Amino acid sequence: MERLTTLYIDKESHKFSAAHYTIFSASERERLHGHNYSVSARIVAPMGDNGFSADYNVYKGRIKQLCDELDEYMLLAGESLHQHIAEDGDYYRVRFAGDDMLFLRKDTLILPIRNATVEEFAHYLLGKLRTLSAGEDLREVEVCVASGPGQRGGALWTAD
Ligand SMILES: Nc1nc2c(c(=O)[nH]1)N=C([C@H](O)[C@H](O)COP(=O)(O)OP(=O)(O)OP(=O)(O)O)CN2
């Protein structure tokens, strides 16, 4: 029977600081604020004959790269049903519930997510990590994003 193993990657250095607001409904959102988000991962892979599965250093490097890509940005949910984002010179103009908010484009990332929540960040990062790991024999990958101690959301991929 094939033996599987689980790698847990939970490094203190896997973090990004970002500004966001959560949207609760068409008319309700949080005020703009920031978090020091931390990212962890769980990877299930086949165990090799020599007691080694997948090199966790490889995944550490990828997760760090993904965190660095989000660090010190304003993160906007590009697929929210409740806000409209338009380019306006050096700014993004975001219309939500009758309010217009302007964010410097160079400080802002529009992500393909429906809300700027930990669960959507986790889903986004899981997709990016899977792309970076294409062709590798992994059976399950879970990415968790925490907005602070004791509160996190995860996204899970399982091989068919
Ligand atoms: N399902 C989710 N719910 C909430 C999310 C989320 O990402 N997914 N995010 C938030 C807030 O953005 C964020 O947590 C701020 O909440 P708040 O409790 O006000 O402040 P802290 O994170 O600092 O937590 P403390 O317990 O107050 O330290 C809300 N919901």
From TrEMBL:
Task: State the name under which the record lists this protein.
Answer: 6-carboxy-5,6,7,8-tetrahydropterin synthase
Q: Tell me its family.
A: Belongs to the PTPS family. QueD subfamily.
Molecular function (GO) terms for this protein are: 6-carboxytetrahydropterin synthase activity; metal ion binding
Q: Name one Pfam family in it.
A: PTPS
Q: What is its cofactor?
A: Zn(2+)
Metal-binding found in the keyword field: yes
Keywords for this protein: Lyase, Metal-binding, Zinc
